[in-house]
Amino acid sequence: MDTLPAGTLMQRAAAGLARRCAQLLTDRFGAVYARRVLLLVGAGDNGGDALYAGARLAARGVAVRALLLDPDRAHAGGLAALRAAGGSTVAAAPGVVDLILDGVVGIGGKGGLRPTAASVVSAAASSTASDGGRPILVAVDVPSGVDPDTGEVPGEAVTADVTVTFGCLKPGLLVGAGATRAGLVDLVDIGLSPAVPPVLRVADREDIRGWWPVAGRESDKYTRGVVGVATGSSTYSGAAVLSVAGASAGPAGMVRYAGSAADYVRQRYPSVIVTESVERAGRVQAWVCGSGLGTDERAAGELRTVLAAPVPVCLDADALSLLADGRMQDLLRERSAPTVVTPHDREFTRLAGFPPGGDRVASALGLANQLNVTVLLKGDRTVVASPDREVWVNPTGTAALASGGTGDVLSGLLAALLAGGLSGVRAAVAAAYAHGMAGRAAAEGGPVTSTDVAAALRSSVAAVLA
Ligand SMILES: NC(=O)C1=CN([C@@H]2O[C@H](COP(=O)(O)OP(=O)(O)OC[C@H]3O[C@@H](n4cnc5c(N)ncnc54)[C@H](OP(=O)(O)O)[C@@H]3O)[C@@H](O)[C@H]2O)[C@@H](O)CC1
Ligand SMILES: [K+]
Q1: What residues make up the domain containing 240?
Q2: 280 CB under 6 A from ligand 1?
Q3: Ligand 1 site, residue 45, Cβ cutoff 6 A
Q4: Which of 90, 105, 177, 280 is the most exposed place for a label (fewest CB within 10 A)?
């Protein structure tokens, strides 16, 4: 536990905050000196951070003005420091502001912004910077109005360009509507060791490179892993092709396809071994099953065979619809090998019986526990939650991936990583990461289709692993 006086932590927070603001001003305006900064100051310690950071900027020649929401309760030490450094207070937002520091409310707030705070924020945000553009908006610790624990935005809230947060990454900055409000998130280490391990983790490239199975000289197709693809149908042959494309970009040594789109797959991927059914597929070390499979009796039979296999399984789309009526959920709970499900919001709702709602982390954890599976809940910030309460948030997501068929590519890749020996959580996190990178790469060429994402996947994986 931390034993430092609270004032020390606030000074460290303010120092990190002021450093970041100075950098943002220099990047945009070429210098810190004579720039104009407006502090929006609430009555709690969040406002104190803003005031102390403002004092540091004032000492560097910045014109710092503080707008106090509750003048009688503003942080006394912070206000004195600001004044001593040459800063002053104002009753309303000035017309010209280069950077706004949102110190209205931090982790001590609940609910959306109160009406007075909301109108102050909106007036400040509509001021103009000295270059004629919009002022840079920096949130202190959390964009005011965002629930720091869940990412819910129940009412009015600040939309920041950058959030400088202290000590740990709050869930509300990483998931749900809060993630969009936070902009770029900078973590300042204030030397505070959290009393509980961080609930949420964000994978970086080093994590993915460390986990990704790499073939050695002794490897053969079985040590690299054989992935089975039970997706698509003669009606939905595209789904089969997309999941095979995803699977082929992974580390597996061989891809087997089982289903009624076999001819279609064989024409496009001569290296894939095709059969008409899961039962006849031969040895497979992980399955992906679902997209384009349909929901008829034949599809249900294929899903049952996949679930009975003692190997890891990734389930998507129609497999999730087939599971939604509950009849096959016992098979799921009884499995001993890892299972990963990859729902979007509507599939999640059908499967769980409740919508993911504002608290996407709690919802994903709830479904993981309910079904004894790893849940990859798709979204702008995809959440991965395991039955043993591990939670990861994917940082590479992009709106470009919100297009039909991209999920088929994702689940194919995920299954290849399962076949390569990764745990359900790592396979899900690594697949989401690489898939996001492929979506970003594909978007460079204009509007994105799932075929573009599939085509970009191999080189994106190579770039992540380079
Ligand atoms: N913990 C640490 O170790 C460290 C913490 N640090 C910093 O302290 C911050 C937490 O400070 P905190 O606890 O004083 O609360 P804080 O976020 O300022 O909010 C309270 C104020 O907000 C108001 N308010 C509430 N809801 C509202 C709403 N919806 N809309 C508008 N206003 C609302 C509420 O009003 P009241 O209810 O009192 O009328 C009160 O005035 C933390 O985020 C970080 O920045 C750093 O210095 C580093 C070390
Ligand atoms: K804030």
Answers
A1: 205-465
A2: no
A3: yes
A4: 280
Which of 198, 218, 251 delimits the end of a domain? Answer: 198
The reported pLDDT for the residue numbered 197 is 52
**Nearest of 226, 218, 232 to residue 250 by alpha carbon:** 226
In terms of Cα–Cα distance, which of 144, 142, 149, 148 is closest to 125? 144
For residue 386, give Cα distances in angstroms to 249, 294, 337, 416. 24, 27, 13, 19
What is the number of domains present in the chain? 2
- Are 119 and 223 members of one domain? no
For 431-453, the pLDDT digits (tens) are 999 999 999 999 988 889 999 99
Residue 1 has pLDDT above 50, yes or no: no
Same domain as 256, residue 189: no
110 touches ligand 1 (CB under 6 Å): yes
* 33 Cα: distance to centroid of ligand 1 (angstroms): 30
Task: For residue 113, give the ligand nearest its CA.
Answer: 1
Provide CB contacts within 8 A for 95, sequence distance 6+. 127, 128
Please give the single-letter amino acid code of residue 81. Answer: A
What single DSSP character describes residue 185? E
- Could you tell me if residue 1 is inside a domain? no
pTM of the prediction? 0.82
Residue 108 lies in a domain: yes
pLDDT in tens, 288-343: 999 999 999 999 999 999 999 999 999 999 999 999 988 898 999 899 999 999 99
Q: Is 359 in the pocket of ligand 1 (CB under 6 A)?
A: no
Of 172, 198, 224, the position where a domain reaches its end is 198
